[in-house]
């Protein structure tokens, strides 16, 4: 299993970031390739454009609200998992640490694209872009 970790500091209180991260309907606004998302309990359904093909995936979300840690894993489609940890910087700023776990072959099969180092670089750019878009979304919604 390969792991990628990224973080970003955003200009909103921790609770604001936590609430936005849990609004599945906003995922298409900051997660590249997600066309629609809807939550049903602990399961979130994602309609995704994966490698030029429309596909549906389900993810299970497991929260540790006292620690402000959101864990997720796919329950259908490619085997993916990750966590979002929110850390208060001060009353108006939050650091989001994202951890993404994947099998390189699974990513290529499900989404197409490069292999090896090029794939790792593409995934890193994608996660970084998603975090930047989340930052923009949550800061504009204040």
Automatic annotation (TrEMBL):
Pfam families referenced in this protein's UniProt entry, alphabetically: Polyketide_cyc2 (PF10604)
SUPFAM superfamilies cross-referenced by the UniProt entry: Bet v1-like
Entry-linked Gene3D superfamilies: 3.30.530.20
InterPro entries reported for this sequence: ORF3, Polyketide_cyclase/dehydratase, START-like_dom_sf
Name of the featured protein: Cyclase
Origin organism lineage: Bacteria, Bacillati, Actinomycetota, Actinomycetes, Kitasatosporales
């Amino acid at each position: 299993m390969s792991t990628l970790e990224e973080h970003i500091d955003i200009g909103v209180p921790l609770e604001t970031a936590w609430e936005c991260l849990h609004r599945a309907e906003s995922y298409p606004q900051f997660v590249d390739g997600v066309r629609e998302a809807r939550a049903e309990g602990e399961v979130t359904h994602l309609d995704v454009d994966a490698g030029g093909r429309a596909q549906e995936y389900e993810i299970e979300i497991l929260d540790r609200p006292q620690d402000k840690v959101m864990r997720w894993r796919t329950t259908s489609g490619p085997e993916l998992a990750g966590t979002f940890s929110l850390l208060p910087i001060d009353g108006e700023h939050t650091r989001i640490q994202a951890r993404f776990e994947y099998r390189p072959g699974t990513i290529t099969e499900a989404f197409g694209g490069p292999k090896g180092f090029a794939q790792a670089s593409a995934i890193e750019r994608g996660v970084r872009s998603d975090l930047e878009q989340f930052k923009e979304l949550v800061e504009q919604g204040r």
